[in-house]
Records
---
Amino acid sequence: QKEVEQNSGPLSVPEGAIASLNCTYSDRGSQSFFWYRQYSGKSPELIMFIYSNGDKEDGRFTAQLNKASQYVSLLIRDSQPSDSATYLCAVNGAGGSYIPTFGRGTSLIVHP
Amino acid sequence: EAGVTQSPTHLIKTRGQQATLRCSPISGHTSVYWYQQALGLGLQFLLWYDEGEERNRGNFPPRFSGRQFPNYSSELNVNALELEDSALYLCASSSWGQGSSLNSPLHFGNGTRLTVT
């Protein structure tokens, strides 16, 4: 059973701070990792993906992957109130699977 | 480029009825996925279609079914609706398929909110 675990939160950070969102996965063979943002009542939108160990930066967002620890994280720098949403981690590729497994998401609240 | 489109936006049915949800993928995408997101829960995988065939299905009863048409659009059918089927149904498409890269992300439509009374 492939599992993707996220702390449900809410994670509350002040505006301008760094928000750190974490995700662990159970299947060591997983190959690709995705972060989605979902506003209340809306559909998930892709923020970024990563598939190599290390860091990947895109604007205010940095994804970090550590396959040995089966851990992927998302850092949001200079957090804004508009970043308040649920962040979903998705993992794919274990055993050649094309079915991404999603975590339940972490609720982020950025307060002014 | 048009994104993934889903219809209808909202659907209200009574218990025991059938519901049909529709999805058009991004142009060029051959893979279509269906997920269910019940209130407060995560995304649960329902079905995956690629090149017109069902490639995989999640842990849902047979009354959840669907198909993919030659133009790669897809339909999800839910028969004998139950109250617990009330959820947001999300369709997503991807450029990957059998034999393709696993790194292509899913792109989601705006979803269909199904309410069963």
---
Amino acid sequence: NAGVTQTPKFQVLKTGQSMTLQCAQDMNHNSMYWYRQDPGMGLRLIYYSASEGTTDKGEVPNGYNVSRLNKREFSLRLESAAPSQTSVYFCASNGEFEAFFGQGTRLTVV
Amino acid sequence: AQSVAQPEDQVNVAEGNPLTVKCTYSVSGNPYLFWYVQYPNRGLQFLLKYITGDNLVKGSYGFEAEFNKSQTSFHLKKPSALVSDSALYFCAVRNDNQGGKLIFGQGTELSVKP
């Protein structure tokens, strides 16, 4: 039982490059989330998906897009990376109550 | 809009002493409240939750939290701190009547010294 799996674990991008962060869960959860974690800022919600086929903006959606491909997968795309997007990104899925988190992706934009 | 505040960036406690990590929230309706813990270079782990019922809820590793509706607080407590409790703690709130988004506070670094 893998839980929530994120790939890649580490990534370095140049300003202006694009990339997609992948997330998959095997717990049959409806809700999935993408967060970014920055020192002193806690976890800020980027996008949220309540179910397959639906997505909703969170607190800091600018510069990101998401795709809920199916019930298992929820990807986060940076179309044109900026240094301000240097962060640690976490994907999570939510059962009836508590959420389960992936191990994170450490992204550096230079 | 829902929000969570953790007023202390850092809490320092001596091993064996009780600890409290504070959390207040703002949400309309009945919230679901959570505490998560993060160890260095790891994802978040669930500690405990309040959904309904008794205001005092017990969770993993001897932690408990008290829901206070009038003060809109959900403080995390432990009677006797361990050095291994040192970590980053997050309070979170979810309101399924407002789309079910899970919103986190900014986190509190707990340091337990021997």
